[in-house]
């Protein structure tokens, strides 16, 4: 397979922030609402379990990249180590997940710009679209730096909001013990969608190829930071308002309780979260397209611009097309592509151990790739997919 992607240096911190920025999308603000029946403790349980499982699958991909001389994305690694069917499955999975997320960020950014500045939603999306597309055109180095700057800003905003919540007179931490574990299954599904940075591992490997030993450490640090941030938002919102008063988007709850400054800061945070997630998912989608179809995006500007257009224009058009049925279709395919994304990395690392073309600087501990762990991951994600489909078809009560 021709190696069309070139190495571009990023720092350890930029690698960590790529993971955090990609994971911290719009989901972080809706997670409190999703847990309103189950409560905080079942949510925390799933954040830990799914966080660990996702980290394992990311480390599988990391080892496979370290056993491969060429810089390849998930679909390229799948082609090399699993075969043609695995490669197309992986490419379809990346495409559908990316499309679904980018459509959501396009329409969500318009809504947010409208609520913050009162401007037309389409204009809001256009204003969001400009920096979103520009960084993808500039490449991996620009993406790493931008993720670092904006994610650092997001962490400061979150620290201010959480700090204000902790000191607020009506904050009551006993709300964190409310809820019912019976409702824990639907919460799992949302948490799976929040930890979505598997795509970004080959991009990080490409950026850290000058210090490959830092790759697994950057993954673990990025996932741990994600966990802390995602756990803090519902902790704050639920202890501030109680489960029965949680709004669908956390920014509204914060604004109501803490005052208008919190509403503006939380919405500013949400906008940054969408932007960093857009860069992470859009950037890896771009590289997957280049890898799958051998497009020289790192050496030919015209090819790069055309590939960026393929990534950024359809989600913008579909967000405002009124094709609700299409978005529903994406939901179903997204559920199954989530299963592909959880299963194929294990097959990739097994193939890489047999047929890799270079000695790895690091490899997963043997217990981490034990078949029992793989079977557990497979069962968890497959049952999640079945649940998601049954709930969508109204064969299970919504939210349980």
TrEMBL record:
It is a multi-pass membrane protein. The chain crosses the membrane at residues 12-34, 40-61, 81-106, 126-143, 150-168, 180-197, 218-240, 260-282, 303-323, 329-349, 370-390. It is found in: Cell inner membrane. Pfam families: Trp_Tyr_perm. InterPro entries: Amino_acid_transport_2. Keywords: Cell inner membrane, Cell membrane, Membrane, Transmembrane, Transmembrane helix, Transport. Its main location: membrane. This is Amino acid permease. It comes from Uruburuella testudinis.
């Amino acid at each position: 397979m021709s190696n069309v992607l070139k190495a571009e240096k990023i720092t350890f911190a930029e690698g960590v922030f790529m993971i955090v920025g990609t994971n911290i999308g719009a989901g972080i603000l809706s997670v409190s609402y999703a847990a309103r029946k189950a409560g905080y403790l079942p949510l925390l349980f799933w954040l830990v379990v799914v966080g660990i499982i996702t980290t394992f699958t990311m480390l599988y991909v990391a080892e496979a990249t370290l056993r491969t001389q060429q810089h390849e994305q998930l679909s390229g690694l799948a082609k090399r180590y699993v075969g043609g069917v695995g490669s197309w499955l992986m490419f379809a999975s990346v495409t559908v997940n990316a499309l679904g997320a980018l459509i959501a960020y396009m329409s969500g950014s318009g809504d947010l710009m409208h609520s913050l500045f009162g401007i037309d939603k389409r204009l809001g999306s256009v204003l969001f679209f400009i920096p979103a597309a520009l960084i993808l055109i500039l490449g991996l180095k620009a993406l790493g730096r931008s993720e670092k700057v904006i994610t650092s800003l997001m962490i400061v905003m979150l620290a201010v909001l959480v700090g204000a919540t902790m000191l607020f007179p009506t904050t009551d931490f006993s709300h964190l013990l409310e809820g019912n574990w019976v409702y824990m299954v639907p919460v799992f599904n949302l948490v799976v969608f929040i930890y979505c940075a598997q795509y970004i591992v080959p991009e990080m490997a490409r950026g850290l190829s000058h210090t490959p030993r830092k790759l697994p450490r950057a993954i673990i640090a990025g996932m741990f930071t994600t966990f802390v941030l995602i756990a803090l938002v519902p902790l704050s919102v639920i202890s501030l308002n109680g489960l029965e008063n949680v709004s669908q988007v956390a920014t509204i709850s914060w604004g109501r309780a803490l005052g208008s400054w919190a509403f503006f800061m939380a919405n500013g945070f949400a906008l940054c979260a969408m932007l960093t997630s857009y860069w992470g998912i859009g950037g890896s989608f771009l590289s997957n397209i280049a890898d799958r179809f051998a497009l020289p995006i790192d050496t030919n500007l015209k090819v790069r611009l055309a590939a960026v257009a393929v990534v950024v224009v359809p989600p913008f058009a579909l967000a405002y097309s009124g094709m609700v049925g299409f978005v529903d279709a994406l939901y179903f395919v997204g559920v199954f592509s989530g299963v592909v994304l959880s299963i194929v990395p294990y097959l990739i690392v097994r193939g890489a151990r047999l047929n890799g073309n270079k000695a790895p600087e690091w490899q997963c501990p043997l217990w981490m790739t034990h078949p029992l762990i793989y079977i557990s991951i497979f069962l968890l994600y497959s049952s999640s997919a079945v649940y998601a489909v049954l709930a969508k078809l109204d064969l299970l009560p919504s939210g349980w």
